[in-house]
Amino acid sequence: MKQDMADSKLLQAPAPSRVAPVSTPLSKSQKVHYPFWFGGSASCFAAAVTHPLDLVKVFQLSQSSGPDPESPPPESR
Known about the structure:
Elements: H1 2-11, H2 37-63
């Protein structure tokens, strides 16, 4: 009886794996062609986001406390 149970466990198929199939790179005939305006819209978006950030950076750097203009210059040797 125990032998029959052991044999039945050996004959059972393994559980299916949940690994995703590997995708192959697109061949030259299957290359995706994006509309030409995608590049222009991406550059406009990048400029609209980075320009204000750069302005804030420059403003903060120009407002940082530097050497006091009324103090005498440091002595040189």
